From TrEMBL:
Organism: Rotaria sordida
Domain F-box: residue ranges: 2-52
Signal peptide: none
A Pfam family it matches: F-box
Top-level taxon in the UniProt lineage: Eukaryota
Protein name in UniProt: F-box domain-containing protein
InterPro entries per the UniProt record, alphabetical: F-box-like_dom_sf, F-box_dom, LRR_dom_sf
Length: 318
């Protein structure tokens, strides 16, 4: 006896539908019959949606699967109507607008775990982004554990806030904002930060025990190991450290002083990377002997300054 599509068990449909793109799935199978519609309505795929064109997010297929989409990446500046995507875990905004930021609220997307807002090239009214950051650092998003945020202006009054973020990538214009961040986010494990300040002026009276990974990009002139030590001394459990500076920027640090700071402040360090211009030049053989993690050294001479830009790492850079 011939077998038709309707004779297949539901499990086969679930298996087949996993390999069909969302739009094709909706256009090919929706409204065929009551049973197929029921199967489409009951599947729980971990759907990821990237919207580049403004009209894509309002496509009928998107609306049909909206409450089952887990990851949403938006590359346009139109409104989102996030109320339809109430179960997303990951949200990325490449060209954020006031309207889009106003939709990021805990009662609209309560399951949010990951948030990335790329506002490097976007001018937003301070109060809109400020209010969103306040909601994040107040712990209003119960499941949010990872954030990538740019151009944050911390308020000293935020030190009374608290959240459960475990990983954050930010850029700050004031080194002291880091102390506010440590108070607000006591459970941080990973921090990636660009410091863009005139001076490396950091003070923090407590010890930050949980942080295991620190990625630093320093746009600060004439910083030395003394300033670096003031930061690393509060992170005794650090296992991964990366430090980078702009190509033509010179530090007031020697390789020897760097090795001393690492031995003093980071006894549990397992992985290390730095790319900068040191105050004094050292031979490759000498650098190898200064610290167990100074395993791979690469030297590039800057054309404009004729200074040696040195990369030191514990692993081969790829």
């Amino acid at each position: 006896m011939a077998t038709t599509l309707e004779h297949l068990p539901d499990e086969i449909f679930f298996e087949i539908f996993e390999y069909i793109p969302m739009k094709n799935l909706y256009r090919s199978f929706s409204r065929l019959n009551h049973r197929i519609n029921s199967i489409l309505s009951s599947i729980q795929p971990r759907l990821a949606l990237q919207c580049i064109q403004p009209n894509e997010i309002h496509d009928p297929s998107m609306m049909f699967f909206a409450n089952r989409i887990r990851k949403l990446s938006i590359w346009h500046s139109n409104s989102l109507n996030l109320i339809h995507f109430s179960n997303i875990r990951s949200l990325e905004l490449e060209h954020p607008t006031i309207e889009q930021l106003n939709e990021i609220r805990p009662h609209i997307i309560p399951q949010l775990e990951y948030l990335r807002i790329n506002n490097n090239n976007t001018r937003l009214p301070g109060n809109v982004f400020y209010e969103l950051c306040h909601s994040i650092f107040s712990g209003e998003f119960s499941y949010l554990h990872t954030c990538i945020l740019n151009n944050i202006q911390f308020n000293c009054q935020w030190s009374i806030l608290s959240c459960k973020l475990r990983s954050i990538q930010i850029d700050v214009k004031n080194c002291q904002d880091l102390s506010y961040l440590f108070d607000i986010c006591p459970e941080l494990i990973r921090l990636k930060v660009m410091l863009d300040d005139e001076y490396f002026n950091f003070h923090y009276s407590n010890t930050y025990q949980r942080l295991c990974r620190l990625d630093l990009y320093l746009r600060i002139n004439n910083w030395s190991c003394k300033e670096l030590e003031s930061l690393l001394i509060v992170m005794p459990n650090l296992k991964y450290l990366s430090i980078q500076t702009p190509f033509a920027q010179r530090s007031q640090m020697t390789v020897e002083s760097l090795a001393n700071v690492l031995r003093k402040c980071t006894p549990k360090l397992e992985s290390f990377f730095i790319n900068t211009i040191f105050k004094e030049q050292s031979s490759t053989d000498d650098i190898h002997q200064l610290h167990p993690l100074f395993k791979f050294i690469h030297v590039v001479q800057a054309v404009t300054t004729r200074a040696d830009h040195i990369t030191i790492s514990s692993k081969i850079s790829r």
